[in-house]
Amino acid sequence: MMMTDTEIKLKGIKTLIKALGIVEAGRFIALMSTEPFDYTVWQRNLWADESTKEISNKAMGYRKLH
Questions:
Q1: Residue 42: which domain range?
Q2: Tell me, what's the pLDDT at 8?
Q3: Domain count, the chain
Q4: What's the confidence (pLDDT) of residue 17?
Q5: Integer distance in angstroms from the first to the last C-alpha of the chain?
Q6: Model pTM score
Q7: pLDDT tens-digit map of 6-27
Q8: Do 52 and 44 contact (CB within 8 A), yes or no?
Q9: Host H or E run for residue 64
Q10: Among 8, 21, 27, 53, which has the minimal tally of Cβ within 10 Å of its Cβ?
Q11: CA-CA distance, 38 to 66, in Å (whole number)?
């Protein structure tokens, strides 16, 4: 079942707080909202040094764990 936009936002905030702590999570959100951000460019560069097979293997491993 697909999550709603609100559920995604809430889960994202909770994940940021868990990973960074509340202060740094707030700073991260502030940084992301004030800087120009192009998701397409970011996504293209995210795994630039990895092959499609490597990315696929990581995704399958993640799915098995979660």
A1: 5-65
A2: 94
A3: 1
A4: 95
A5: 15
A6: 0.54
A7: 999 999 999 999 999 999 999 9
A8: no
A9: helix 52-65
A10: 53
A11: 28
Q: Which two tokens stand for residue 31?
A: 């940084």
CA 30 vs CA 4, 23, 34, 44, 60: distances in Å = 23, 11, 6, 23, 32
With beta carbons less than 8 A apart as the criterion, state whether 16 and 28 touch: yes
Q: The tokens of 12 are what?
A: 């994202």
Confidence (pLDDT) at 14: 96
Burial class (CB in 10 A: 0-12, 13-18, 19+), 28: middle
Number of residues assigned to the chain: 66
Per-residue pLDDT of 29-62, as tens digits, reads 888 888 787 888 888 888 888 998 998 998 899 8
